[in-house]
């Protein structure tokens, strides 16, 4: 289960058109620790946007899937990952200790656009964060809603999403994990992305 969304105060000078949210994870299937981690910065697990999930298009009611019925689009434009770890009490060898736990801060920048044909000013999207082992087996996956409101004559908004995940490593190196992110797409949305990409 993942915890609720906590609002973050906007720093002075930050434009109001940049929504920012922090999502805190607590207890994924393969164990996330509850306590915070304030250890040493370290090399992070590999983090990538899954194939063909960086973009999503949302259409209005009806069967049309062309520009005349396109309401909203969104794209992941940047992804940053920062990690910290805490070493365990038991030594791994004479010169090194096991990593007991790791905290990963994922920061996504998402640009959402509203089409002139849209009959709503609120775009609703969903993105996911998944963790896999070296063989590609999914160890845990969570989805997050993203609601973007276009006020006034705004047609383009940049949203910043931050997700904090805390992992117990159980003797596994941090590089054991692979982090995948992207929009949670329906089969129809996947097919649309493939057509647009020419694939």
Count helical runs.
Answer: 1
Chain-averaged pLDDT: 75
Question: How much helix is in the residues?
Answer: under 10%
Q: H/E order of the elements?
A: EEEEEEEEEEEH
Give a quick rundown of the structure.
With 199 residues, this protein is mainly β. It has one helix spanning 187-197, and strands at residues 2-7, 20-25, 40-42, 46-49, 55-59, 70-91, 97-114, 122-132, 138-149, 156-168, 178-183.
What does this 3D model show about the protein?
With 199 residues, the chain is mostly beta strands. It has one domain (15-31, 44-80, 105-197). It has one helix spanning 187-197; strands at 2-7, 20-25, 40-42, 46-49, 55-59, 70-91, 97-114, 122-132, 138-149, 156-168, 178-183. The longest helix is centred in the last third of the chain and has 11 residues, at 187-197. The model is unreliable at 1-18 and 24-41 (pLDDT under 50).
């Amino acid at each position: 289960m993942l915890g609720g969304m906590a609002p973050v105060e906007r720093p002075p000078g930050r434009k109001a058109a940049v929504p920012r949210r922090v999502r805190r994870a607590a207890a994924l299937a393969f164990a996330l620790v509850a306590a915070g981690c304030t250890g040493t910065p370290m090399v992070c697990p590999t983090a990538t946007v899954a194939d063909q999930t960086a973009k999503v298009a949302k259409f209005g009611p009806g069967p049309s899937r062309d520009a005349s019925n396109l309401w909203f689009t969104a794209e992941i434009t940047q992804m940053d990952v920062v990690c910290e770890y805490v070493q365990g009490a038991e030594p791994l060898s004479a010169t090194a200790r096991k990593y007991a736990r790791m905290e990963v801060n994922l920061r996504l920048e998402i640009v959402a656009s509203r089409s002139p044909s849209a009959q709503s000013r609120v775009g609703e999207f969903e993105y996911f964060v998944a963790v896999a082992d070296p063989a590609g087996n999914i160890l845990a996956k969570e989805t997050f809603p993203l609601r973007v409101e276009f006020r006034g004559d705004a047609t383009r908004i940049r949203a910043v999403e931050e997700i904090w995940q805390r992992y117990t490593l159980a003797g596994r190196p941090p590089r054991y994990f692979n982090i995948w992110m992207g929009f949670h797409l329906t089969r129809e949305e996947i097919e649309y992305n493939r057509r647009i990409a020419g694939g």
